[in-house]
Design brief:
The chain has 197 residues and is mainly α. The protein has two domains: 83 residues; 78 residues, no CATH class. The chain has eight helices and no strands. Helix 5 runs antiparallel to helix 6. The radius of gyration is 30 Å and the shape is elongated. The two termini are 50 Å apart.
Length: 197
């Protein structure tokens, strides 16, 4: 009996050991025409294993790439697509650079702080006031989510003033939406998303 732990590791496990053995076998076929026919049959079998993917545009191309991969890029056949290079599959992806700069208040997130900066550049006072109203209510909601406690509107206005370098000032007497109403609104939206058919 042959244990799986003693077997050669599968290159693409989703196709199973039998397909891998077939690919290894066609590498030993000397006649090129016979090898091409055998490769086409393996492609058909691989396609039958995933019939739901047949309608995808690049499905056949992907199968030919997979057969090249399983053959360790050492299979001399007439593929309808260019044979991929081994480096395409083995090279590491480029590192994603981190966003520069530290956040003053992490719970607000970078997008909110960019939005505040954008609001300072709006010249139309009416539009700016409307955006500030939306921003401050959202800041309050984020604060409540982060802190799990109520927050005074004055604290939100102070943070807005600080983050905008004094360019966005909310008039005294302005009231934001109540914390419980902000959170209830969020819960209603979540309920709708999860109960949708």
């Amino acid at each position: 009996m042959e244990y799986s732990t003693k077997r050669v590791k599968l290159i693409l496990p989703e196709y199973g050991r039998n397909i891998q053995k077939m690919v290894e076998y066609i590498k030993t076929i000397e006649d090129r025409d016979t090898r091409n026919i055998a490769a086409q049959e393996i492609i058909n079998i691989m396609g039958n294993m995933n019939p739901h993917l047949r309608d995808i545009n690049d499905f056949k191309h992907k199968l030919w790439d997979h057969i090249a991969q399983m053959a360790e890029f050492d299979l001399d056949i007439d593929s309808p697509y260019p044979t991929p290079l081994e480096e395409t599959f083995t090279s590491k992806p480029n590192t994603v650079p981190y966003t520069e700069g530290k956040l003053k208040y992490k719970y607000l997130g970078r997008t909110m702080q960019k939005l505040i900066k954008a609001a300072t550049k709006i010249e139309d006072k009416e539009k700016q006031d409307e955006l500030v109203r939306v921003i401050t209510n959202h800041m309050k909601k984020l604060y409540v989510i982060w802190n799990k406690d109520t927050v005074e509107d004055s604290l939100i206005f102070e943070k807005l003033n600080e983050l905008s370098n004094g360019k966005l000032v909310v008039e005294s007497g302005t009231r934001l939406t109540e914390s419980k109403d902000l959170m209830n609104n969020t819960r209603k939206i979540k309920k709708k998303v999860y109960t949708r058919n």
